[in-house]
Amino acid sequence: MTKVVHDSFSANTLSSPNKEIGWREFFLLLIYAVGLTTAIYVLRQHLKQLPSLSDSQQISMLATTEFTGTVAPSKEFKMAATNPAIVRNIFVKIGDRIQPNQPLLALENLTAKDIDSVKQQHLAVQQEIESVKQQQELAKQQVEGLEQKIENFLPTISLNQQLDAAELRVSISQLRSQNVPLRQRQDSIQRSEAVYKQAMAQNNRVQKLYREGAVSKAQIEQAQTDFQVAKADLASAKAAAAAANNLEQEQIKQWQVQHQLKITAQQQQLTEMRGQLEIARLQYKQVTRKLEKLRQQASKLLDKQIPDNKQIIRATDAGVIVNLPVATGDQIFTGTNLAGLAKLGDLKVQVPVSASLINTLYIGQRAVVQVGMGTQKVEATVVTINPLPAQNLTYTVEVQFTNSVNALLVGQSAKVHFLSK
Questions:
Q1: Taken in order 41, 42, 47, 49, is the CA torsion positive or negative?
Q2: pTM metric for this prediction
């Protein structure tokens, strides 16, 4: 029992220093974090608190303050490659003064090697254009031929209908002419009916006379026979007239069927021709669109600028060569910087101005610049004032002056004094 208590006491004793070390480190970190936060806050508040100076104090301080900067060219520009090439010759060196349009470099244009390919493509397109033009002409002729055929066919349908109607009228007239009741014809209904009535009257008279004993039996038998013959002839004539009428109706029905079949065939033929016309028009439109696309393609190939194999890079403005990042034999690509030029006739100096003095400056304000260790001073003018301050709450002000003797001043330190109004 005593051993267990002793061991527990030993463990507690060993762990206590670790706990003290942990709490001590925690408090130290806490104090460090609070101190750092306070320092940052105080620094920011200090930076935000601008010195409050009167106008006269600002002007006085500006006149006695010397601002330092570095002389730089007022304008710099670069010459870049417009296409892949190989540098074959360089005509200038750094420091040379050049004039506008002066040759700077000679390049071998790598894109000029595509000229044969472009010519072959253009020739192939032109050949295809000629082929498609022939297809277009054939399609146009087919459309015009079908349109003319349909135009000629429409009157034919009307004429055929009129001809069929005339043929029907002729057939009916011929049939009716055969059935005209002629007196001498035995099958005339009117004659047969007249004979029938006469025979019936004669038969009635003979029978009356026979009953009176005025005629013989032979006479009455003859009268009866004549009556039966006349009756049969009348029935036969009526049957013939009905048959002729039925024949006329059947002929009319037959003509109507034949006429309908002919109209259907003509309409079907007209429909087929119109369908062929629509297909021909569609083919003509497709060929025309294809021809237009080919012409556009050929135009693009013609418009494509095929540069010469040898390309001369010329200066776009006067200046001094300040950079030549390429050498003879270098292979360059589109956008590669070939040369850097600067105009040294006008120079500039950028200086930082504190927030307490910036409001006394304005564009066009005069200043004096002293370059390097010399005593010569030149007049300058404020050309830009950056409205956005830097991290330290200073504003960048740029003054520009004329380098009338074209002295080499770029990169030298310069002191700027701003003159009061």
A1: positive
A2: 0.42
How many Å from the N-terminal Cα to the C-terminal Cα in the chain?
98
Residue with tokens 């507690």: 12
Assigned CATH topology for domain 119-303: Helix Hairpins (1.10.287)
Q: How far apart are CA 33 and CA 25, in angstroms?
A: 12
- The letter for the amino acid at 286 is Q
Separation between Cα atoms, residue 330 and residue 206, nearest integer Å: 149
CA proximity to 244, closest of 187, 192, 193: 187
Q: What is the pLDDT of residues 373-398, one digit of tens each?
A: 767 788 999 999 999 998 888 999 99
Neighbour-count burial of 352, counting CB atoms closer than 10 A to its CB (0-12 exposed, 13-18 middle, 19+ buried): middle
3 state SS of 93? coil
Closest by CA to 322, choosing from 338, 346, 336, 311, is: 338
The domain locations on the chain are: 1-49, 55-102+315-418, 119-303
Strands 85-90 and 103-109: antiparallel
Domains 55-102+315-418 and 119-303 share a fold: no
Contact partners, residue 409, CB within 8 Å, separation at least 6: 71, 347, 371, 372, 403
SS3 403: coil
Q: How far is CA 216 from the centre of its chain?
A: 119
> Residue 242: which H helix or E strand, with range?
helix 217-303
- Dump the DSSP string for 31-86: HHHHHHHHHHHHHHHHHH------HHHHHHHHHH--EEEEEEEEEEEEEE-SS-EE
HSE-CB at 1 with a 13 A cutoff on CA atoms is 0
> Which phi-psi region, left, alpha or beta, contains residue 124 (left: φ > 0; alpha: ψ -120 to 50)?
alpha
Q: Cβ(331)–Cβ(76) under 8 Å?
A: no
Tokens of 415: 């002191």
The count of other CB atoms within 10 Å of the CB of residue 164 is: 16
Tokens of 328: 């003879």
Tally of CB atoms within 10 A around 330: 15
pLDDT tens-digit map of 177-229: 665 554 444 456 777 788 878 888 888 888 888 888 778 888 888 888 888 88
Locate 221 and state its tokens. Answer: 């038998």
Class for the domain spanning 55-102+315-418 = mainly beta
